[in-house]
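worker-3 :: picked Response regulator
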Amino acid sequence: MRAVIAEDSVLLRIGLVKVLEMAGFEVAAETGDAESLLRAVEEHRPDLALVDVRMPPGFTDEGVRAALMIRQQWPDTAVLLLSQYVEERYAADLLATQTGGIGYLLKQRVADVEEFVDALKRVAAGGTALDPQVVAQLLLRRGGPDPLERLTPREREVLALMAEGRSNAGIAAELVVSESAVAKHINNIFAKLDLPIADGDHRRVLAVLRFLDGGPA
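worker-3 :: C-alpha coordinates ->
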Protein backbone atom coordinates (compact mmCIF):
# COMPACT_ATOMS: atom_id res chain seq x y z
CA MET A 1 0.00 0.00 0.00
CA ARG A 2 1.15 3.51 -0.79
CA ALA A 3 0.78 6.54 1.46
CA VAL A 4 1.42 10.26 1.50
CA ILE A 5 2.11 12.21 4.68
CA ALA A 6 1.24 15.86 5.35
CA GLU A 7 2.72 17.11 8.63
CA ASP A 8 4.47 20.47 9.15
CA SER A 9 6.59 19.24 12.08
CA VAL A 10 9.70 17.82 10.42
CA LEU A 11 10.61 15.60 13.39
CA LEU A 12 7.13 14.07 13.61
CA ARG A 13 7.03 13.62 9.85
CA ILE A 14 10.31 11.70 9.92
CA GLY A 15 8.90 9.49 12.67
CA LEU A 16 5.69 8.87 10.75
CA VAL A 17 7.65 7.87 7.65
CA LYS A 18 9.58 5.30 9.67
CA VAL A 19 6.42 3.90 11.29
CA LEU A 20 4.61 3.58 7.96
CA GLU A 21 7.57 1.93 6.29
CA MET A 22 7.89 -0.52 9.19
CA ALA A 23 4.19 -1.31 8.72
CA GLY A 24 4.75 -2.17 5.06
CA PHE A 25 3.57 1.08 3.46
CA GLU A 26 5.46 2.71 0.62
CA VAL A 27 5.65 6.44 1.43
CA ALA A 28 5.20 8.02 -2.00
CA ALA A 29 5.46 11.64 -0.79
CA GLU A 30 5.81 13.73 2.36
CA THR A 31 4.87 17.36 2.68
CA GLY A 32 4.23 20.12 5.19
CA ASP A 33 1.22 21.98 3.79
CA ALA A 34 -2.22 21.31 2.32
CA GLU A 35 -1.50 22.50 -1.23
CA SER A 36 1.47 20.18 -1.60
CA LEU A 37 -0.62 17.37 -0.13
CA LEU A 38 -3.30 17.75 -2.78
CA ARG A 39 -0.70 17.79 -5.55
CA ALA A 40 0.91 14.65 -4.11
CA VAL A 41 -2.41 12.80 -3.92
CA GLU A 42 -3.25 13.77 -7.49
CA GLU A 43 0.14 12.56 -8.69
CA HIS A 44 0.52 9.34 -6.70
CA ARG A 45 -3.11 8.31 -6.00
CA PRO A 46 -2.11 6.66 -2.70
CA ASP A 47 -4.15 4.19 -0.69
CA LEU A 48 -3.82 6.40 2.40
CA ALA A 49 -3.22 10.07 3.20
CA LEU A 50 -2.00 10.79 6.73
CA VAL A 51 -2.88 14.42 7.39
CA ASP A 52 -2.25 16.94 10.18
CA VAL A 53 -5.42 18.90 11.01
CA ARG A 54 -3.62 22.26 11.34
CA MET A 55 -1.01 23.22 8.77
CA PRO A 56 0.44 26.34 7.14
CA PRO A 57 -0.41 29.02 6.34
CA GLY A 58 -3.21 29.57 8.87
CA PHE A 59 -2.78 26.61 11.23
CA THR A 60 -6.57 26.27 11.60
CA ASP A 61 -8.39 23.61 9.56
CA GLU A 62 -6.26 23.38 6.40
CA GLY A 63 -5.79 19.64 6.81
CA VAL A 64 -9.51 19.00 7.30
CA ARG A 65 -10.44 20.97 4.20
CA ALA A 66 -7.79 19.11 2.20
CA ALA A 67 -9.08 15.79 3.55
CA LEU A 68 -12.64 16.62 2.48
CA MET A 69 -11.37 17.51 -1.00
CA ILE A 70 -9.41 14.26 -1.21
CA ARG A 71 -12.48 12.21 -0.28
CA GLN A 72 -14.54 14.04 -2.91
CA GLN A 73 -12.04 13.99 -5.78
CA TRP A 74 -10.13 10.76 -5.06
CA PRO A 75 -12.53 8.57 -3.06
CA ASP A 76 -10.22 5.55 -3.31
CA THR A 77 -7.71 7.34 -1.06
CA ALA A 78 -8.43 6.81 2.64
CA VAL A 79 -7.67 9.66 5.05
CA LEU A 80 -6.41 9.53 8.61
CA LEU A 81 -6.34 12.91 10.38
CA LEU A 82 -3.94 13.61 13.23
CA SER A 83 -4.63 16.36 15.76
CA GLN A 84 -2.89 17.79 18.81
CA TYR A 85 -6.22 18.43 20.55
CA VAL A 86 -9.71 16.94 20.60
CA GLU A 87 -11.79 18.67 17.93
CA GLU A 88 -14.62 16.22 17.44
CA ARG A 89 -16.52 18.30 14.88
CA TYR A 90 -13.85 17.50 12.30
CA ALA A 91 -14.51 13.77 12.63
CA ALA A 92 -18.22 14.41 12.19
CA ASP A 93 -17.53 16.60 9.12
CA LEU A 94 -15.61 13.79 7.46
CA LEU A 95 -18.10 11.08 8.34
CA ALA A 96 -20.93 13.25 7.03
CA THR A 97 -19.53 12.86 3.51
CA GLN A 98 -18.41 9.22 3.49
CA THR A 99 -18.37 6.51 6.10
CA GLY A 100 -15.43 4.34 5.11
CA GLY A 101 -11.72 4.98 4.88
CA ILE A 102 -11.80 7.68 7.56
CA GLY A 103 -9.77 8.09 10.74
CA TYR A 104 -9.25 10.78 13.36
CA LEU A 105 -6.62 10.26 16.07
CA LEU A 106 -4.74 12.38 18.55
CA LYS A 107 -1.02 12.63 17.84
CA GLN A 108 -0.21 11.03 21.17
CA ARG A 109 -1.53 7.73 19.77
CA VAL A 110 1.51 7.51 17.49
CA ALA A 111 3.55 6.53 20.56
CA ASP A 112 1.66 3.23 20.77
CA VAL A 113 3.06 1.96 17.50
CA GLU A 114 1.16 -1.33 17.43
CA GLU A 115 -2.26 0.26 17.90
CA PHE A 116 -1.40 3.13 15.56
CA VAL A 117 -0.36 0.74 12.80
CA ASP A 118 -3.57 -1.24 13.34
CA ALA A 119 -5.56 1.99 12.88
CA LEU A 120 -3.59 2.87 9.74
CA LYS A 121 -4.27 -0.50 8.15
CA ARG A 122 -7.94 -0.48 9.19
CA VAL A 123 -8.53 2.94 7.62
CA ALA A 124 -6.54 2.07 4.48
CA ALA A 125 -8.73 -1.04 4.10
CA GLY A 126 -11.89 1.10 4.15
CA GLY A 127 -12.71 1.03 7.86
CA THR A 128 -12.80 3.75 10.51
CA ALA A 129 -10.62 4.71 13.46
CA LEU A 130 -11.83 7.34 15.91
CA ASP A 131 -9.82 8.37 18.93
CA PRO A 132 -11.40 7.32 22.25
CA GLN A 133 -11.13 10.89 23.53
CA VAL A 134 -13.05 12.15 20.48
CA VAL A 135 -15.77 9.60 21.19
CA ALA A 136 -15.88 10.70 24.83
CA GLN A 137 -16.29 14.35 23.80
CA LEU A 138 -19.14 13.41 21.47
CA LEU A 139 -20.90 11.71 24.36
CA LEU A 140 -20.43 14.75 26.62
CA ARG A 141 -21.71 17.07 23.90
CA ARG A 142 -25.04 15.29 23.67
CA GLY A 143 -28.11 16.87 25.20
CA GLY A 144 -31.85 16.31 25.00
CA PRO A 145 -33.79 13.22 23.99
CA ASP A 146 -32.61 11.16 21.04
CA PRO A 147 -32.75 7.51 19.98
CA LEU A 148 -29.54 6.78 21.86
CA GLU A 149 -31.44 7.27 25.13
CA ARG A 150 -33.04 3.88 24.50
CA LEU A 151 -29.70 2.15 24.88
CA THR A 152 -28.48 0.62 28.11
CA PRO A 153 -25.13 1.80 29.51
CA ARG A 154 -23.48 -1.39 28.23
CA GLU A 155 -24.97 -0.93 24.76
CA ARG A 156 -23.65 2.63 24.70
CA GLU A 157 -20.21 1.31 25.61
CA VAL A 158 -20.41 -1.15 22.74
CA LEU A 159 -21.53 1.56 20.32
CA ALA A 160 -18.72 3.87 21.45
CA LEU A 161 -16.19 1.11 20.73
CA MET A 162 -17.83 0.51 17.35
CA ALA A 163 -17.32 4.22 16.62
CA GLU A 164 -13.61 3.78 17.37
CA GLY A 165 -13.54 1.14 14.65
CA ARG A 166 -13.22 -1.91 16.91
CA SER A 167 -14.22 -5.32 15.61
CA ASN A 168 -16.53 -7.61 17.60
CA ALA A 169 -13.46 -9.45 18.85
CA GLY A 170 -11.80 -6.18 19.85
CA ILE A 171 -14.92 -5.04 21.70
CA ALA A 172 -15.16 -8.36 23.51
CA ALA A 173 -11.53 -8.11 24.61
CA GLU A 174 -11.98 -4.52 25.82
CA LEU A 175 -15.13 -5.27 27.82
CA VAL A 176 -14.00 -8.75 28.92
CA VAL A 177 -17.12 -10.45 27.58
CA SER A 178 -17.74 -13.11 24.96
CA GLU A 179 -18.08 -12.31 21.25
CA SER A 180 -21.59 -13.76 21.33
CA ALA A 181 -22.51 -11.25 24.05
CA VAL A 182 -21.13 -8.44 21.89
CA ALA A 183 -23.13 -9.66 18.90
CA LYS A 184 -26.29 -9.67 21.04
CA HIS A 185 -25.62 -6.10 22.21
CA ILE A 186 -25.06 -4.97 18.62
CA ASN A 187 -28.31 -6.55 17.46
CA ASN A 188 -30.11 -4.76 20.31
CA ILE A 189 -28.48 -1.48 19.22
CA PHE A 190 -29.68 -1.96 15.64
CA ALA A 191 -33.22 -2.67 16.83
CA LYS A 192 -33.39 0.23 19.30
CA LEU A 193 -32.04 2.70 16.74
CA ASP A 194 -34.67 1.53 14.21
CA LEU A 195 -32.01 0.78 11.61
CA PRO A 196 -33.26 -0.81 8.39
CA ILE A 197 -32.44 -4.39 7.53
CA ALA A 198 -29.20 -4.42 5.54
CA ASP A 199 -25.86 -6.18 5.51
CA GLY A 200 -24.07 -6.12 8.84
CA ASP A 201 -21.33 -3.69 7.82
CA HIS A 202 -23.84 -1.15 6.45
CA ARG A 203 -25.99 -1.24 9.59
CA ARG A 204 -22.85 -0.88 11.68
CA VAL A 205 -21.92 2.31 9.81
CA LEU A 206 -25.46 3.68 10.17
CA ALA A 207 -25.32 3.07 13.92
CA VAL A 208 -22.01 4.91 14.19
CA LEU A 209 -23.36 7.84 12.17
CA ARG A 210 -26.36 8.11 14.44
CA PHE A 211 -24.04 8.00 17.42
CA LEU A 212 -21.94 10.83 15.97
CA ASP A 213 -24.61 13.28 14.91
CA GLY A 214 -27.66 12.36 16.98
CA GLY A 215 -29.87 12.65 13.91
CA PRO A 216 -31.56 10.13 11.68
CA ALA A 217 -29.18 7.72 10.01
